[in-house]
Amino acid sequence: MSIETERELKSLITQTQAQQISQAYPFAAPFEQTNVYFDTVDNAVREAGAALRIRRFSTYAELTLKLRQIKEKARTITEFTDRLDTRVADELIKADRLPETGTVADELTKLGVARLELRKFAQMTTRRRECELPGCKLVLDDNYYMDGSRDWEAEIEYTEAGAATELMTALSTEFHIEGRRGSNKIARATAHMPHQD
């Protein structure tokens, strides 16, 4: 179980910009993660200003509830996370349900979200690269959607706002990034789900 505050800046970028940035900074080896998003039919999680997902890595998974806030003109996220075994995560996804206990279950109850009404509604896979820098972390995401679509995103997670702003300005100048905010990953994953008749 963990509770973290995440502050971040994001921009959609092109494939060429992603390649250029990856060559200009000392990124660690890439890794893959698959996000499966959950909400109720009436969008109770979204209406509470939150997002709910199971994120599956190769050796473990996480159940995370994100609550968004605006502080210092920046998006701040409080994340409540329960670690899951990959087998358990796969079973939960297949059964279209979430754990009955844990930090996330407790927070959902506080928000008034009926856990038994939750269902998965979107999924995407990301190939992620991370670069630790003073006061912030630069992240490049290569996102793959269920309908075969793909996009790229630069993200700066930070503890020092000045470092993040300075880095975003440098990236924008050097790689001609126009600050395309775009919709969030959940909205993009939802838009790129194959239609079921």
TrEMBL record:
InterPro entries, A to Z: CYTH-like_dom_sf, CYTH_domain, Uncharacterised_YjbK
Q: Which residues form the CYTH domain?
A: 4-196
User: Span of the secretion signal?
Assistant: none
Quote the Pfam families the UniProt record gives: CYTH
**Gene3D superfamilies reported for this sequence:** Hypothetical Protein Pfu-838710-001
* Cited SUPFAM superfamilies: CYTH-like phosphatases (SSF55154)
Q: Which SMART domains match?
A: CYTH (SM01118)
> Which named protein is this?
CYTH domain-containing protein
The species is Lacticaseibacillus pabuli
